[in-house]
């Protein structure tokens, strides 16, 4: 009996995690293009923070962490020079929305989704699945044409998660990238 109960708990926790991932992605896919989207994004980010206790900690030195962030920010800066912005206006509300989106999405995709998948299927799968989900939830807002860019961005942010052992480097990079895209 004890063995059956012990085995049922991880399965239940896994089902709850999958439900939280599905609902979080659904909330991001269906978020309206308005101030309400900032609230929906914040709630998804809070889910990513509260969903489970993180067992990983930033495992790099401050200098290495900064180099990882600089690498990501440089890649996004180059993308901005080569391509158009997001069409979000450079206003107080636009800045606030992009900062919230960067932090909340990374709490969800790199802390929660990546962390949960990494423990079950390894780093490569965690990077790939979290990047794919990240790219897919942006299609309703930006269209299918940005799928390759968002998938590449998700892989880069996933690499940062792996390289640093935590989600704060991807969160800062994502926020900087969003700010670079403001028109």
Highlighted features:
about 0% strand, disordered N terminus, about 180 residues, mainly alpha, single chain
Structure description:
- The structure is a single chain.
- The protein is mainly α and 183 residues long.
- The chain has one domain.
- It is 79% helix and 0% strand.
- Mean pLDDT is 82; it is low at 1-6.
Mind sketching the topology for me?
Elements: H1 2-29, H2 35-50, H3 62-82, H4 92-121, H5 123-137, H6 139-142, H7 147-164, H8 168-180
Structural class estimated from helices and strands: mainly alpha
Question: Which word captures the global form?
Answer: globular
Number of strands: 0
Mean pLDDT: 82
Order of helices and strands: HHHHHHHH
The helix content, as a percent range, equals: over 70%
Runs with pLDDT <50, length 5+? 1-6
Brief overview:
With 183 residues, the protein is an all-alpha fold.
């Amino acid at each position: 009996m004890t063995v059956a109960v012990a085995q049922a708990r991880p399965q239940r926790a896994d089902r709850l995690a999958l439900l939280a991932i599905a609902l979080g992605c659904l909330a991001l896919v269906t978020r309206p293009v308005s101030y309400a989207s900032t609230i929906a994004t914040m709630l998804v980010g809070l889910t990513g923070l509260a969903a489970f206790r993180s067992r990983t900690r930033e495992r790099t030195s401050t200098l290495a962490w900064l180099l990882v962030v600089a690498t990501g920010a440089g890649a996004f800066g180059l993308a901005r020079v080569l391509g158009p912005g997001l069409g979000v206006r450079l206003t107080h509300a636009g800045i606030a929305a992009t900062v919230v989106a960067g932090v909340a999405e990374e709490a969800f995709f790199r802390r929660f989704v990546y962390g949960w998948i990494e423990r079950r299927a390894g780093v490569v799968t965690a990077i790939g699945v979290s990047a794919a989900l990240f790219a897919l939830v942006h299609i309703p807002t930006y269209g299918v044409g940005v799928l390759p860019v968002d998938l590449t961005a998700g892989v880069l942010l996933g690499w940062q998660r792996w390289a640093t052992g935590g989600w704060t480097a991807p969160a800062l990079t994502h926020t900087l990238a969003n700010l670079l895209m403001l028109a």
